[in-house]
Write a structure and sequence with these properties.
It is built from 11 helices and 4 strands, in the order E-H-E-H-E-E-H-H-H-H-H-H-H-H-H. With about 230 residues, the protein is mostly helical. It folds into 2 domains: about 70 residues, Glutaredoxin (3-Layer(aba) Sandwich), CATH 3.40.30.10; about 130 residues. Helix 1 packs parallel to helix 3, helix 1 runs antiparallel to helix 10 and helix 10 packs across helix 11. The relative contact order is 0.15.
């Protein structure tokens, strides 16, 4: 074991980022999935309920996923996922592109998260999640789902997803080999595949699976129907 402990929710894209990155590095870590209603464990670790929380072997911790990805790259530089693959300007351009899409993407995947057992499989957790959605978006997940077709069309156009998927099919990975951009793209966008009635480009679906396999990760882990 690497001595790393990851406290996470299965349904969280931010948590998926760390799961993919740790797998890409070949690091065996202690996986600590928390109940969605578990407020106590994060507080005991010195944080609010925002996950992931990653604890390093030296006992230090953080719960900012992007900061953690960069720190993981610093502490475990091999195999490289950023340096030598993506230059600073391209990395910043990607982060800017992602930031423009993030509010729309967050609304789109909100109705999907109850498909995970940690939320949809527990009455109290589901009620909590619905209340959180209503506070954050002004709508419960069922209402948000009604806008999924228009929302996805906007995302597809704004993010030029069809052109991106064609590029990823040609190169297999964004930079030609696995990088942090692939990890962010897969972690943050792969839940779109679970939107009922929304059809993602087939090349994008294959890409998500290709990244997951390279990271030795199961994209369906935690889903209620997953075995």
């Amino acid at each position: 074991m690497s001595g790393i402990t990851l406290y996470h929710h299965w349904s969280s894209p931010d948590c998926m980022r760390l799961r993919l990155a740790l797998g890409a590095k070949g690091l065996a870590y202690e996986s600590r999935p928390l109940a969605y209603t578990d407020f106590g464990t994060p507080l005991d670790l010195g944080y609010d309920r925002v996950l992931p929380i990653l604890e390093w072997p030296d006992g230090s911790r953080d719960n900012q996923s992007l900061t953690l990805l960069l720190e993981l790259e610093r502490r475990h530089p091999e195999p490289a996922l950023l340096d030598g693959l993506v230059d600073a300007a391209e990395w910043q351009a990607f982060l800017d592109w992602h930031a423009r899409l993030a509010p729309l993407l967050e609304r789109l995947i909100a109705p999907v998260r109850p498909g995970f057992a940690e939320i949809g499989g527990d009455v109290e957790a589901l009620a909590l999640y619905k209340a959180e959605c209503e506070r954050h978006f002004g709508q419960i997940p069922e209402a948000l789902s009604n806008d999924r077709y228009d929302g996805y069309r906007q995302l597809e156009q704004l993010g030029q997803l069809r052109a991106l998927s064609s590029q990823l099919a040609r190169k297999r990975f964004y930079a030609g080999q696995l990088s942090l951009i692939d990890i962010l793209l897969t972690a943050d966008f792969q839940l779109l595949r679970l939107l009922d009635g929304v059809t993602l480009p087939l090349d994008l679906m294959y890409y998500f699976q290709r990244v997951a396999e390279a990271c030795h990760e199961d994209l369906d882990a935690g889903l209620q129907h997953a075995t």
